[in-house]
């Protein structure tokens, strides 16, 4: 008499899809989950929350035209560097304008350096 095994069957032997297969399909095809939450009081809209969730691989997201992480300084070193370069140029421009307004002060600062 043999006892039934409590261990799951090894990968690829069962007829059903396992988590890895499902995840691979979802990332390959992409999935969108959307929903809206509205809170009204006496026909007055107090709050609206729009929820959008997209689960996809990076390649699939780029194919769909979604690439917001590339421009987010918190997620991309290139975007952070671009932001710092732009901020630096703006500060240099502001400093140049200020020095034009008070030329005597700029000379005094240069002489003391």
First-last Cα distance: 94 Å
User: Whole-number average pLDDT?
Assistant: 80
For the biggest β-sheet, the strand order reads 1-2
- Ranges where pLDDT stays below 50 over 5 or more residues in a row are none
By helix and strand content, what is the structural category?
alpha+beta
Strand content is 15-25%
Major beta sheet summary: 2 strands, antiparallel
Cα Rg: 29 Å
Order of helices and strands: HEEHHH
Number of strands: 2
Total number of helices: 4
Inertia-based shape:
elongated
* Range of helix content: 40-55%
Structure description:
The protein has 113 residues and is of the alpha+beta class. The chain is built from four helices and two strands, in the order αββααα. It has a two-stranded antiparallel sheet with strand order 1-2. The model has no long low-confidence stretch (mean pLDDT 80).
